[in-house]
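haha ok so turns out i had the wrong file open the whole time. this is the CORRECT one, sorry everyone. sequence first:
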Amino acid sequence: MSRIGKLPVAIPAGVQVKIDGSRILIEGPKGTLEHTLAPGISAQVEDKTLRVQRESETREVRSLHGMSRKLLANMVTGVSEGFARKLDIIGVGYRAELRGNDMLFLTLGYSHPIVYQLPQGVTAKVDRQVAITLESRDRQLLGQVASEIRALRGPEPYKGKGIKYSDETIRRKAGKAAGAAGS
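then structure:
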């Protein structure tokens, strides 16, 4: 049995879970999220907990059991608390600016500023022009947006310039002068 799949998902106060066959609708203070379960996976609500079960022991169903439970747990957390991801911009002249609620203007050393349109459901805050905080109720969408913004100018290993996650560490390389001096 899946160790993650058999764990119950606690439903906090203010969150409602509606199950209609394989479709699950989760509503909370931060909004609404919807998910369709894979065939062979079922869910049920019993006294403020959500349980995910598998209907057969085939390899495909067993592999989807834990993932389905984790997706539903992320949805419950998202509609009650939400998720946040922080990005840091490192480099002289590199900066970000938020115009309106959904337009991110990034100056990243290219000949032109990059305009990034935030998708529906993701909000951004820019602190000191070099720190971006992205927030959303959908963890998958938040991760995708953070990855796309980071890919605009990934951190380089010599000086560390670029966009990185705030909890990411960049392995630095020595460079030509340090390598030649040691020989």
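The helical segments are 59-80, 139-151, 176-181.
again sry for the mixup
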